[in-house]
Amino acid sequence: MTNLTIVASINVKQDKIDFVKDEMIKLIGKTLLEEGCVQYRLHQDNNNPAHFLFYECWESRELWQIHRENTHMVAYRAVVEGAIESFDVSEMTELS
Asked: How many other CB atoms are there within 10 angstroms of residue 80's CB atom?
C-alpha cells in the first residue's frame, strides 16, 4: 500500500508567530497517536520565522481526512483563526 504524504505550508502574521507556533506544537503528540499517522513533523523556516511546514505521512487519504476533522484539529483552527496569512496543502505520493 502506498502512503499519502501531506506537505502543508503555513504563513503566519508576524505578530502571531510565537502564538501559532505554540498551538501547532500542541497538535503533534495528539496527531501521532491517531490511527494511520506514520509521520507528523513541524518545521520552521530559518530565514523567515513566519513560515512553517508540516510534513505528514498517512496510511491512507481516508485516515488523513478523519484527522482533519478530529476535535483537536477543529479546536486549533478556531484558536488560530485570523492569525494565518496563507495555508497551502499538497497531497503527494512518494515515488522512491
From this structure: 18
Bridge partner residues of 56 (DSSP): 6, 40
8 backbone dihedrals φ, ψ, rounded to 5° = -110, 120
Residue among 10, 11, 72, 9 at smallest CA distance from 37: 72
Quick count: other Cβ atoms within 10 Å of Cβ 6?
A: 20
Is the C-alpha dihedral spanning 87, 66, 95, 44 positive or negative? positive
pLDDT digits (tens, 9 = 90+) for 32-61: 999 999 999 999 999 999 999 999 999 999
Contact 73, 27 (CB under 8 A): yes
Residues 6+ apart with CB under 8 A from 26: 72, 76
- Tell if the pTM clears 0.85, that is, is over it: yes
Separation CA 88–CA 96 (nearest Å): 24
